[in-house]
Amino acid sequence: MSLFLVTSLIDEGMYENDFRVVEAKSKLEIAQHMLDHPHQWENYLRIAYPRNWRDQTFNVGTLWDCAQNPQMSAESFLELIDMTSVDGDSESQLRIFEVEVQQLREVNTDPFKRRTISQ
Question: Taking Cα atoms as reference points, which of 90, 111, 115, 100 lies closest to residue 8?
Answer without folding.
Answer: 90
